């Protein structure tokens, strides 16, 4: 089942869209906190996003840009701001289509179906995102993004961070991390693990996030 994320601050419009799309067999989720749209996007990992332009805090262009930093999930803009400038800007910001309000719900459905066919007929779902404290790990391309800044990770750096993010709040021992890396045929020893963690920390700090990975002496590492 395809999941649709609705980023629309008009509750009546959002609920109407949600009910209509669920009748067509889609799973539809409405954003509730418009100051934390990205957290909702990562949590839900939708197949497609319906994005209004005029939103509280930040407009739809801002959120589309943030999504494009970490994902190629299609974005369809829904807006009454339908002059040529806004339509061109929506496409330039990474939008896949633009639907003018007021709209016919059947037209919205047809547009969604067309975009889904183009996007997923020959490719896998571009999900697999982990988020914590605003940091987003993309499993597909092995990158870490924080507030728009992206870090490219090596295979070992990626696996170390993935293991820690999958166990947030828990100490993961060095032995456990090395065991997981050996399972991936990354033949890593204790010294190499230290070097990889040091390099990983530096890359994370370069994105602007501080003290993301903490050391518990004699126990291991954790993210909290």
Give a verbal description of the structure.
- Helices cover 42% and strands 20% of the residues.
- With 224 residues, the protein is of the alpha/beta class.
- It folds into two domains: 3-120, Rossmann fold (3-Layer(aba) Sandwich), CATH 3.40.50.2300; 129-222, Arc Repressor Mutant, subunit A, CATH 1.10.10.
- Strand 8 and strand 9 form a beta hairpin.
- Helix 6 (155-165) crosses helix 8.
- The mean pLDDT is 90.
- Residues 127-224 bind DNA.
Key descriptive features of the protein:
224 residues; Rossmann fold; Arc Repressor Mutant, subunit A; five-stranded parallel sheet; four-stranded antiparallel sheet; 8 helices; 11 strands; 42% helix; elongated; phosphoprotein; WalR-like; DNA-binding; WH-like_DNA-bd_sf; Stage 0 sporulation protein A homolog
Written as H for each helix and E for each strand, in order along the chain, the element string is: EHEHEHEHEHEEEEHHHEE
Oligomeric status of the shown chains?
single chain
Q: So, CATH architecture of the largest domain?
A: 3-Layer(aba) Sandwich
Residues in β-strands, percent: 15-25%
Q: Just give the CATH class of the largest domain.
A: Alpha Beta
- Radius of gyration from the alpha-carbon trace, in angstroms: 20 Å
Low-confidence stretches: none
Overall number of domains: 2
Span of the ends, CA to CA: 33 Å
Fourth-level CATH superfamily of the largest domain: Response regulator
Q: What is the number of helical segments per DSSP (H or I, 4+ residues)?
A: 8
Q: Residue-averaged pLDDT, rounded?
A: 90
The geometry reads as elongated
Number of strands: 11
- The side-by-side strand order for the widest beta sheet comes to 2-1-3-4-5
CATH topology of the largest domain: Rossmann fold
Q: Structural class per helix/strand content?
A: alpha/beta
Largest sheet entry? 5 strands, parallel
| Helix fraction by DSSP (H/I, runs of at least 4) | 40-55%
